[in-house]
Amino acid sequence: MSNTEELREKFGESEQGNFYVEDTIGVPHPFCIGEKVMRAVESGLLSKENIMAAESERHRGLCSARFESGGSCQMKFEEHEQAILVGCKANIKGKDDMANPELHQWLLKNKELCEKEGFAGFSFLDKREKHD
């Protein structure tokens, strides 16, 4: 069973099935492996431990994500978190501009589990067939 399948089982889906775990997503973005990390990982195995070892003062292998401004992330591996990516088959807001009650109920039900599992929170992916 994949990690995503396990998360889908743990979190379930909303009452009408419109909201569910699609996957996980890096926050603020996925850790980007750069040249310094690759040089530092002598074994060639990109494990969590080897990536973190590459962050040492000697190697300085930090995240290599590039920004439009021309800079790069420079955060450590552990500073990047994971969030639950919620697949949304319905609008996340109602016509009254308030949170969709079905989504709200599902999020409240899963908030404690999300925190217990060490996730930073929830992010949303539009999976609607027709967009309003």
Quick synopsis:
The protein is of the alpha+beta class and 132 residues long.
Tally of extended strands? 3
Q: Helix count? A: 4
Strand content: 15-25%
Tell me roughly what share of residues is in helical segments: 25-40%
The profile of the biggest β sheet is: 3 strands, mixed
Radius of gyration: 18 Å
Note poorly predicted spans. Answer: none
- The rounded distance between the terminal residues' Cα atoms is 35 Å
Order of helices and strands: HEHHEHE
Strand order of the largest sheet: 1-2-3
- Domain count: the total is 2
Overall pLDDT:
89
Report the structural category: alpha+beta
- Overall geometry: elongated
What does this structure look like?
The protein has 132 residues and is of the alpha+beta class. The protein has 2 domains: 3-28 and 80-126, no CATH class; 31-79, no CATH class. Helices cover 28% and strands 17% of the residues. It has 4 helices and 3 strands, in the order H-E-H-H-E-H-E. It has helices at residues 3-11, 35-40, 48-53, 101-116, and strands at 19-27, 81-88, 122-126. It has a 3-stranded mixed sheet. Strand 2 (81-88), helix 4 (101-116) and strand 3 form a beta-alpha-beta unit. The longest helix has 16 residues, at 101-116. The relative contact order is 0.21.
